[in-house]
Amino acid sequence: MKQEVSKTDNISMSFCIGVLCFLLLTITVTVFTRTVLVKKLGMENAFTAFVFADKEFLDNGEEAASANANTINWAILYPFSENSSSNGEKNDDTPPFLLSLLDRYERTVESIENKLNTYSSSFLIGYQKLTEFAKAYDEVIGWNFASFGEYNGIVELPDDYLTSYMEECDEREQIQSLYSFNAFLNRMDIPLVYVQAPYKISAYDDATISGTADFSNQNADKLLNGLRKQGILTYDIRETIHDEKLSNHSLFYRTDHHWLTTTGLWASQQVLSFLDEKLDFHADVRRLDADKFRQDLYPDWFLGSQGKKVTLARTEPDDFVLLYPKYDTKFHYAVPAEDIDVVGDYSIVYDMRQIETKNLYGLNPYGGCNYGDQPLIRIENRKDSDDRKILIIHDSFCDCVISCLALCEKEVDSLDIRHFTGSVESYISENVPDVVIVMYNAGGVSGEIDWDSHTDMFDFR
Prior knowledge:
By secondary structure, this protein is α/β, with parallel strands linked by helices. It has a domain at 170-444. It has 13 helices and twelve strands. The longest helix has 37 residues, at 2-38. It starts with a helix and ends in a 20-residue tail after the last strand. Residues 56-67 have low confidence and may be disordered.
């Protein structure tokens, strides 16, 4: 009996070793093909097409964009002041040398994890098919994406929309940072407006899980209440959605955490109407009426970030729509990290590399809106518009909002301070907008502020 067990163990071990060797071999082949055959020798043939059949390395332009972004030192262009409004000081008695060691340790572990994840997913031949097989097996055995109350896992709502639960957080630090930022703006006589974009889970439509499993709306409510007590002007799009009796889920992609491009257009109109009412702006918001836009439909074209995780074995792609004004437009459009500085009609705001080819796993059509998450975008409207200048500080929900705002305003600058590592205050002092909008979705309101990296959404120094 012992001999039989030992023989079985040997067979199992040999099989596992064989699988690991096969996986390592495919990763090695992919790395060699990409680094030597494609990048060094410029080869593109049936073999390279097979190796990269479910990957994005050959033609999506992301690496070039990343290279451009890395050449810009934003902190030199917009340096930080020692008298910054939000000093970000930590009350921590840990010795500096120990903090340095801990920080180095955390960065090393994170780097190793990222490399393992990259090599196991991006360089494994047939990775997506293997993942689809695993998810199909999960479906057969009834394995859910995430357990009830698990954070950061993918959850399927009753109507097949995918989402993630957000944990409950303390927003006092974010409130204080916005209060200090508002004080800086007050000294320049620039109004601040905080706009709360929705999360896919609604406090009204998803009452059984909102406040019990997911706390995105509760976190946002605490932030808004704190800001209002500090006298900061706020606008809550979630309440407009509820007042207009709109279905919250239907405003989002089923497989992604972002809202639809058509929702972004509608939200832009609501924000500008709010500015007209509260700050005496004079935007012609009728220019953003849905019937004034042509919709180019790309059916079954978009598999969002959540859909990519559960794969096509467990979900189906979303339709994707690009919007084009039916009236004449002329933008001066600059995206420094992409080395773009052009003049043209509205179509120049789209990165068609992400859209024109259907590649569900390799490309991101939503990221084609204003070239995705960019440190800085500057748009000048050279047609009729309200003669105002907006600076919008935002997350990825506004990737499809920025250019819509610019259809009604003279100038719109946008900062995504997760990537813009210079001083926000220096940028404002140099460019002096008429209003600063901070617009985040409810799912992004969480966690302590990272004051060291200058990439935190609530570090406005």
